[in-house]
Amino acid sequence: MSAFMRGVADFALPTHLLAVVVLGLLAPQHAARFPILALIELAAGLLAGSLAVVLGVGENPASTALLALAAIGAAAVIAAWPLPAPITGLFAFVVGAALPLNAPPQEITMARAVLAQAGFALAALAAFAIVALIVLSATREWQLVGAWIAASAILVLALRLAR
Q1: Which of 32, 112, 134, 139 is an S-S bond match for 3, by CB 3.0 to 4.6 Å?
Q2: Statement: residue 20 has pLDDT above 90
């Protein structure tokens, strides 16, 4: 498997998917068109998180942070709170920064690690865009997805914190 595809596969952790899907639900909630600001902030966060990985950030609570962000974002989706664009952008940046910290590439050379990070970032941006486009074109109630994400994230957080 190529390093790029390994990076794409590394994105498929449930923690990553919960955080990005809730961002994809949250960002277009009050946008008439595609939430480009959230996409740009997510990309900036992914770059910042990747740079932190390159600088050698050691153990960190990124997994727990992603679950907490998913639960908070899902609560905002369920309540249909009108979050201002800068707060949604900040949420996207923090999610983007935490994602690479939770899954640093397991490659030997720097070139392969960069390819893995590129695949990871592309998968995250594509997942966000797909969910956001689905939400923008949805005609039925989709807030129920937020309830399932909140329940899942809170359950896993409770299990982690109970140890």
Answers
A1: 112
A2: yes
